Amino acid sequence: MLNLESPTSAYIHVPFCQHRCGYCDFTLVAQKDHLIEEYLAAMEQQLAEVGEGIELQTLFLGGGTPTHLSIEQLQRLFNAIFSHFQLAADSEFSIEANPLNLTEEKIDFLKQVGVNRVSLGVQSFDSDILTFLERDHQPEQIFEIVESLQSRIENTSLDLIFAVPSQSLKDWQTSLANAVQLKIPHLSTYGLTIEKGTTFWSRQKAGLFELPEEELAGTMYEFALEFLDAEGLKHYEISNFARPGYECRHNEVYWTGDPYFGIGPGAASYQNGIRRQNYRSVVTWLKRIAAGDSPISDQEQLSPEDRAREAIIFGLRRRVGIDVAEFASRYGFDLHALAHAAIQKHVKAGFLEETATHLRLTQAGCLLADSVVVDFL
User: Fold this and answer.
1) Is 346 in contact with 365 (CB distance < 8 Å)?
2) Which stretches within the chain are classed as H helix?
C-alpha cells in the first residue's frame, strides 16, 4: 500500500529575487546576490548525496525566481543537477520565471538545456494592479515576452492573481481575456491572501487597504471557471486550468501522493512515507551545509491513517476527485469508514458530491475547499 518506490520527480528551490513582493511569504532572499556562489556550492554538495543516474519524469525549479540567476550561474546549477539526475525521454522540465528576466538569450539557453515548460509570474494585465502587487513589468511587456518565449518553449503557464484591493470584476475579466488571447495552454489563478509576516500584512493591519468582499472574490473565481472552460482550458485542480495534455505533471505528483525529492532551502521531500522539510532561512540552510550538519528542520513518519487522510486532502484538490476503490486498495482504508461524518456533512451542504466511483468537490465546494478539507484531518 505504501509507495516505497524511489522518486521519479524532483523539486529544486532557487531562493533569489530582485525584490520581495509585499504579498510573498515564500522562502527567498532579495538583493542578496552575493550569496549565489555559496548557494551553488551548497547545492552541488546536497545533490552529491542523492546518488547518480536517477531518472526523472518531472523536474521543477521554483523559487524565488530561478531565472534571476545569470546564464553562467544557471549552467553551474544544471551541471550539478544532471551529474546526478537524468531526464526520461518524455519528461516534463519546468522552471518558474519573472517576465523581465527572460531575455532572448536566456530563453534560448533554457531551451538548449532541455526546459520544456515555463511558469511565468505575470499576476495581472492591469498596470495599476501590477504596481500595487509590486511587480516590475508592465502589461505591454507581457505580450512581447510571451510571444518570444512561446516561439521557443510552447508549453507556457501564466500565474494570475484575483481579489486584489480596488480590482473590479471587469479588470479580472480583461486579464483572463488577455491570457486566452495569447493562446496560453495553462493558467494558474490565485485569490490574494495576506500572510502574517509579509509587508502586506502590516499594511492591512494599519488600515492602508482592504481586500474585496468575499462575494466579489467568489464571483471572480466562478467567472474564471466558466470563461476558461468555454475557451478550452479545463479546470483540473482548484487553482489550475489547462488545455488537454498540458496539465502540470509535476504538481500532479504532489496531489496523487507520489514520492519526490526536494532540494534547497525551504524545500520539502516525501520518500518512504516520511515527509522532510528543509530550513526556510536561506542563511541557516547555507550555514548548516557548510558545517556538515543536516539541512532538515522537520521530519515526520506518517502513520497509515495519516497517509490516508492526507491523500483525501490532496485528492480533493483535483477536479476528478478521489477514486474510492483505488483509495481503498492503495491506503487500506474504506473512505466512508475513515471519514463518514465529514463526507455526509459536506454532501448535505452541497460542497461534496458522490458518483458511482468518485468523491469530489462541487463548484461551490471549490470556493470553500480549505474549510471542507479540514474536517478530514
Assistant:
1) yes
2) 36-48, 71-82, 104-113, 127-132, 139-150, 169-181, 199-205, 214-230, 249-255, 282-290, 304-315, 324-331, 335-349, 363-367, 369-373
Distance of CA 23 to the CA centre of its chain: 16
Residue 353 CA to residue 257 CA, distance in Å, equals: 22
Count of all residues that appear for the chain in the document = 377
Q: Identify which of 154, 134, 138, 136 has the alpha carbon closest to the alpha carbon of residue 146.
A: 154
Cβ atoms < 10 Å from Cβ of 347 = 15
Q: Which domains does the chain have, with CATH numbers?
A: 9-254 (3.80.30.20), 318-377 (1.10.10)
Tell me the one-letter amino acid at 289.
I
Confidence of residue 4 (pLDDT cuts 50, 70, 90): low
Q: Cell 485569490 identifies what position?
A: 191
Do the beta carbons of residue 210 and residue 204 sit within 8 Å?
yes
Q: How far is the C-alpha of 45 from the C-alpha of 68, rounded, in Å? A: 22
Q: Write down the number of H helices and E strands in the chain.
A: 15, 17
pLDDT digits (tens, 9 = 90+) for 132-151: 999 999 999 999 999 999 99
Per-residue model confidence (pLDDT) at position 5: 72
Residue for cell digits 495519516?
A: 306
Q: What is the dihedral of CA 361, 366, 370, 376, to 10 degrees?
A: 0
* Residue among 271, 285, 286, 249 nearest 51 (CA): 271
Residue 137's alpha-carbon distances to 185, 219, 225, in angstroms, are 22, 27, 27
Q: What is the pLDDT of residues 195-211, one digit of tens each?
A: 999 999 999 999 999 99
d(CA 376, CA 327): 14
pLDDT classification of 377: cutoffs 50, 70, 90: confident
Instruction: Give the three cell numbers for residue 145.
Output: 515576452
Q: What DSSP element (H or E) covers 196?
A: none
Amino acid identity, residue 57? Q
